[in-house]
Amino acid sequence: MLQYAFKRALSLCLSLCLASVVIFAVVEIAPGDPASFMLGINAQPDTIAALRAELGLDQGKFVRYLEWTGGMLRGDFGTSYTYRSSITDMIAERMWISLPLALYALALSTLIAFPVGLYAASTRGAPGDVAVMGVTQLGIAIPNFWFAMLLVMIFAIKLRWFSAGGFAGWDDGLFIGVKSLTLPAIALALPQASILSRVMRSALIETLSEDYIRTARAKGLSRQAVLWRHALRNAMIPVLTIIGLQFSFLMAGAIIIEQVFFLPGLGRLVFQAITQRDLIVVESVVMLLVFAVISVNFIIDLAYAAVDPRLRHGP
Amino acid sequence: MSLLYVDQLNIKLGPVSVLKDVSFSLQQGEILALTGESGSGKSMTALALMQLLPDIAKTDGRILFQREDLTTKTEKELCKIRGSDISMVFQEPMTALNPVKTISAQVSETLILHKGETPRAAREKAQSILHKVGLPPSVVPMGRFPHELSGGQRQRVVIAIAVALTPSLLIADEPTTALDVTTQAQILALLKSLVKETNMAMILITHDLAVVANMADNIAIMQHGKIVEMAPTQTLFSQMHHPYTKSLFAASGHTVNLPYKAVNADNLLKVTHISRQYRLPRKHPFEATKYARAVSDVSFSIDHGERLGLVGESGCGKSTLTRAILGLDPIEKGTITLNGRDVQNAKADVRRDIQVVFQDPYGSFNPRHKVSRLVCEPYHLLPNAPSGRVADDKISRLLEDVGLSSTDKDKYIHEFSGGQRQRIAIARALIIRPKLVIFDEAVSALDVTVRAQILDLIAKLAAEYGLSYLFISHDLAVVRSVTDRCLVMRDGQIVETGRTKDILDNPTHDYTKKLINAAPKLPALPKGITAHAPS
C-alpha cells in the first residue's frame, strides 16, 4: 500500500511539473503582448518597454518560468496586469465560492446517485428501474443552465425561497452562504447525479452477475444483503472514476452557472482574464485548476486501493 | 425416509425445457455423482436444489428435503436453509470468492449470518474450519485476500464456507475441473473425508467419469435434461445399458489410432538453454527487486515429423515457453531456432512456419468476421497469398478436411459449438501448411465426446499432412494417445524426457510418478464397449 501511495505521489509531482511547463509554453506562444494591450494602440514604444520591464517581461523565458513556479510554491502568484492587485488575493476570494460550490454540488450528486443507483439495480427491469432510466436520460440531455433558469423561476421568482443570484458571502454565517449556493449547486448536481446513478446501476448489475455473488447467495444471504455486503464495494471502481471526473468538471466548468447566478467564481475570473490578455492570471488559475484535478485524481487512486486490495501493490 | 427426494422435476427457461422428469433420492452419508456433457442439465439440477434458479425459470415437480418441499418455501425460509442445511461448492475457484474481502471475513460471514455469532467468535471458528480444510494460519494467514491464494487454496476456502455449519447436503458443482491433477486429487480426498467425518450427503457434479469412479456410491448419467441411467457405481461400470452411457464411457477412455513414428534426428525446432524470469512487485519502495523464474535453462528439440508432448501443472512455465517459441515473448538467455533460423525477432518468413491452436474455442476468434476470413487470416504471412476462387477452394477443402462443410465458410463464429470452433482453429493453423503446429491445451476445454472427436481429427491430420507438433496439456491420458515423445516440466525445468509410452508406464522422476498417481483413472471398460469415439 505504501509502495502504491509513494508511486502515485511521485506521478502527481511529475504531472504537475509537466503541466506547469506546458501551460507556460502555451501562454508564451499565444499572440499578443500584454504590455501593448494594456497601454492601447497609441502607446509610445518607450512606454511599452518601461511597462514590460516593470512587469518583468523583458527577462529571459527560463528566468520568468522559474520566478513564476518559485512564486507559486511560496503561495505568491504575482500581480495581475489589468487590476494591478495580488493574484493570490483575487484567487483566494473566488476560491471561497468555487470550491464550496463544487463540493456542495458533488455531495448532492453523490447523495442522489447512490440510493437511486442501488434502487434501480435491485429492481432491474421493473417499472421503478425503467422510470429511473427515463428520468436520468432526461437529466443528462437537458443542459444545466436551463435547469438553472427553471430553478430561478420556481424557487426565486415564484416561491421567493432563495435569491435569484449573487453571493451573500460567508461573513453573515454558514447558513446564509450555503443558502445562496443552493440553487446553483442543484443546477450543477442534477445532470451529474443522472450520469452517476446510471454508472452506479450498470456497475452494480455487472457485479451482481459475478460468481462470488452466487457464492454469497448460496451462503444464505438475501438479495438485498448481497447487494449491500458484496456487490456495492466491488462496483465502486467505475463510480469513483466518475466522481473524480465530476469534481474536476465542477471546479472549472461551472462558468455558465456562475454567469446565470452572478457568482464571482473562478470560471468567471478566467473568462475575464482571457478577454483582457491578463496572461499571468490565466496561467495561475489554470495551474491551480490543474493542481486541483491532479490532486483529486491522486485521492481517487488512493480510494481505488482502499476499495480493492488487488490494486494495492500497483502494476 | 431419504434426506433428499427429487420427484418428477421439470424446469423451463422461457420456452426451453432444461430439466425433464428428473427424479432421484439421496440418503445421509451418500455420494451421488451427476455426470453428463455440458448443457445436459447437471448444474441446473444443482441450482434447483439451492432454489437459486434464474428469475425466468418455471419449476414443476417436488424437491423434498428433510420431508419439506423446497419449491413451496418462501425466499426468507430458503435463506435460512442455504448455507446451513444445504450448501454448495462451485466450479471456478478463481472467481467464486469476493475479491475485496479477506478469507476470514468470507468464512465467518456464514457463522454470523446463521448462528448470530459475534465477529470475534466467528473469526475463531473460521480459523479452525480453515485449518480443517487444510489451510492452517501458519501457511495461509486469515487476513489474506483471495488473489493472494493459489487455485487449490481458493477452492479450499470455498469448501470451508460450504461446510462451516456442517450441512446435511453438500452440492459440489465441478469442484476440481479448473484445478491441476495433483490439486484435484487433494480436493477430492478432502471432500471424501468430510463426507465420512460428518455423515453429510454429497452430490458431486462432474463431466469426468474417472473422477467419480472412486468417489461416488451412485452415478446418474444425464443427457438433454434427463437422467438416462442411474445405478450404484460398481453396477453401472460393469453393466451399463443406455447407449449414451456407453458412448460417454467409450469417449472417456478413448485412444486414437496414431502409431508411434520413429523419426530421423533432423531438428526442426531447436530450443537451447533458454531462460526467462519475471520481476515480482515490490512491497516497499526501497526493497531490492526480486525475480520469479518462469523458465530456467530449458533445452529440447522437435524433429521433422515428430509429435512431442509437454506435460506440467499450471505455473510450471508451459505458457512462457509457448510464447517464447511463437516469438511473442522475449527470452533472456539461450536460442530458439526453426530450421536453423532464429525465431526471436523473426520476420514473416520464419513466423509463418509455426502456427498455434489455443485452449479457449470461444475467445480466440474475432466475432465480427466470417469463417472464410478467419481461416485465411494467416495468408498475410505469405508473399504470394492465393486470392479469389483459388483461396475459396482452398478454404472449402480445408474445412472439409477438418470435418466441417464448405458451406460453413459464410457463417459467423457464434453459429458453431465449442468442438466445431476448435476444428475451425485447426483449419486456421493449417491453411498455410506450417512446419510446426503448437496445440496449447487445445482439447482441455472440451467435453469428453467432443474431445475424442478432436483428438481423432488431430491424429488423422497428423497422418495425412505429416504434421510435426508440440502438444501441451496437463492431461496425461491425452498426451499418451497423440504424442510419440514427451517432456515433463516442473518449476520452469524439464524433469523427465523420453518416449511417451515409456515415461507414462515406467516414470523415473518422482514428480512424474506423483502426476501419474494423482490422475484419476477409469475402471476397465466392460465387455462390448470399445474405446472408439462416438460419431
Description:
The complex is a heterodimer of chains A (315) and B (535). Chain A is an all-alpha fold. Helix content of chain A is 77%, strand content 0%. In chain A, helix 1 (2-29) packs antiparallel against helix 14 (279-307) and helix 13 packs antiparallel against helix 14. Chain A starts with a helix and ends in an 8-residue tail after the last helix. The model of chain A has no long low-confidence stretch (mean pLDDT 86). By secondary structure, chain B is of the alpha/beta class. Among the domains of chain B are: 1-85 and 173-179 and 205-252, Rossmann fold; 303-315 and 346-518, P-loop containing nucleotide triphosphate hydrolases (Rossmann fold). Chain B has 18 helices and 20 strands. Chain B has a six-stranded mixed beta sheet. In chain B, strands 16-17-18-13-19-20 form a six-stranded mixed beta sheet, sandwiched between helices. In chain B, strands 2-1-4-5 form a four-stranded antiparallel beta sheet, with helices on one face. In chain B, helix 15 (448-465) links the parallel strand 17 (436-440) and strand 18. Chain B is globular, with a radius of gyration of 25 Å.
Topology overview:
The complex is a heterodimer of chains A (315) and B (535).
Chain A: H1 2-29, H2 34-39, H3 45-55, H4 61-73, H5 87-122, H6 127-141, H7 144-158, H8 174-208, H9 211-219, H10 223-234, H11 236-252, H12 255-260, H13 266-275, H14 279-307
Helix pairs in contact in A: 1-14, 5-6, 5-8, 5-11, 6-8, 7-8, 8-10, 8-11, 9-10, 11-14, 13-14
Chain B: E1 4-13, E2 16-26, E3 31-35, H1 42-50, E4 57-65, E5 68-69, H2 75-81, E6 86-89, H3 103-115, H4 119-132, H5 151-163, E7 169-173, H6 181-198, E8 201-206, H7 209-213, E9 218-223, E10 226-232, H8 233-238, H9 243-252, E11 267-279, E12 291-303, E13 307-311, H10 318-325, E14 333-338, E15 341-342, H11 348-351, E16 354-357, H12 371-375, H13 388-401, H14 418-430, E17 436-440, H15 448-465, E18 468-473, H16 476-482, E19 485-490, E20 493-499, H17 500-505, H18 510-518
Parallel strand pairs in B: 3-8, 3-9, 6-7, 7-8, 13-18, 13-19, 16-17, 17-18
Antiparallel strand pairs in B: 1-2, 1-4, 4-5, 9-10, 11-12, 11-14, 14-15, 19-20
Helix pairs in contact in B: 3-4, 3-5, 4-5, 5-6, 6-18, 9-15, 13-14, 14-15
